[in-house]
Amino acid sequence: MTSDAVAERYLRMPHAEKGMAIGLFGGSFNPPHEGHALVAEIALRRLGLDQLWWMVTPGNPLKNHRELAPLSERIRLSEDIAPGPRVKVTAFEKRLGQSYTARTLQRVQALNRGVHFVWIMGADNLGTFHRWQNWQKIACTFPIAVIDRPGSTLAYLSSRMAKTFDYARIDEEDAMSLARRRAPAWTFIHGPRSPLSSTALRSQAALEKTIPQK
Ligand SMILES: Nc1ncnc2c1ncn2[C@@H]1O[C@H](COP(=O)(O)OP(=O)(O)OP(=O)(O)O)[C@@H](O)[C@H]1O
Ligand SMILES: O=C(O)c1ccc[n+]([C@@H]2O[C@H](COP(=O)([O-])O)[C@@H](O)[C@H]2O)c1
Questions:
Q1: For atom 20 of ligand 2, which residue has the closest CA?
Q2: Which class is 8-210 in CATH?
Q3: Which residues line ligand 2 (CB under 6 A)?
Q4: Is ipTM beyond 0.85?
Q5: Angle between helix 71-81 and 34-47 (nearest 10)
Q6: Can you give the pTM of this predicted structure?
Q7: If 120 and its partner were Cys, which of 25, 162, 167, 203 is the partner (CB 3.0–4.6 Å)?
Q8: Top mutation candidate among 54, 101, 119 for ligand 2, by most atoms within 8 Å of CB
C-alpha cells in the first residue's frame, strides 16, 4: 500500500436523506486546524445543519501543490479535529477525478435531489472567488455561507462576488433559512474568530525542524 492510499469510505459521497440541510465545507486542510473546526461549529449551529461534509480536496486548482501533504494524511488529521458526529470527513472529489467546485456541486446536486446544500467558505475566499472556474454558476447552484476570518472581515464590501450578487445577500439573522433558499443567496456570518492558518502552522513546523531538539 502506498502512503497515499485512501480508504474506500472516503472516496464515496456521504449518504444524505431527502429534506436534510447539509453544509459543504471544502478545503486543502494542509494541515487542518482549530480555525477549521470553529468554522464547522459555527456553520452547524447558525445554519441549523443536519450534517457538514468536510471535503478534503485532492488539490485547490489555484494553489501550488508543492507543499501539499498526501490526501490520506490530510484526511487522518481532519478526522482528529473535526467536531462531532454530524461532521463527515470525505474526499469523494478524488474519485470524481477533479477538484473544480462548480463541477463537484453539479454532481452533488444531480445525485441528491431534495437535499438542501450550502457551500461554506472563510471570508478570505470571497476576495478570490471570481477567479474560481464558473464562479457565477457556483453561486447559482447552492446558497453560500461566508464565515468571518481575521484580516478578511471587510472583504465582502469590495469583492467582485459580493458586488455581483449584492441583490442575493440575506441578513445573517436569517441564516437559519439559508439552506432552504433558492440560489443565488448568500450571507456573511460574524462570530467568534480564529487567527489560525495552515500556512502559519507549516512555517512553524519547518522552523521547528531546523532547531536542534534537546
Ligand atoms: N481561521 C479561519 N477562520 C475562518 N475560515 C477559515 C480559517 N482557516 C481556514 N478557513 C477557511 O477554511 C477553508 C479551508 O481553508 P484552508 O484549508 O485553505 O486553510 P488555510 O488556513 O486558509 O490554509 P492556507 O494558509 O494554506 O491557505 C477555506 O474556506 C478557508 O477560508
Ligand atoms: O473550482 C475552483 O476553481 C476553485 C478554486 C479555488 C478553490 N476551490 C475550492 O475551494 C475550497 C477551499 O480551498 P482552500 O485551498 O482555500 O482550502 C476547496 O474545496 C477548493 O477545491 C475551488
A1: 60
A2: alpha beta
A3: 26-28, 55, 57, 60-63, 99-102, 125, 132-133
A4: yes
A5: 60
A6: 0.96
A7: 25
A8: 101
Check pocket membership of 121 for ligand 1, CB cut-off 6 A. yes
Q: Residue 37: nearest ligand to its CA? A: 1
- The domain segmentation of the chain, as residue ranges, is 8-210
pLDDT tens digits in sequence order for the chain, 214 residues long: 345 899 999 999 999 999 999 999 999 999 999 999 999 999 999 999 999 999 999 999 999 999 999 999 999 999 999 999 999 999 999 999 989 999 999 999 999 999 999 999 999 999 999 999 999 999 999 999 999 999 988 877 789 999 999 999 999 999 999 999 999 999 999 999 999 999 999 999 988 888 766 5
DSSP 128-197: HGGGSTTHHHHHHHS-EEEEP-TT-TTHHHH-HHHHHTGGGB--GGGGGGGGGSPSS-EEEE--------
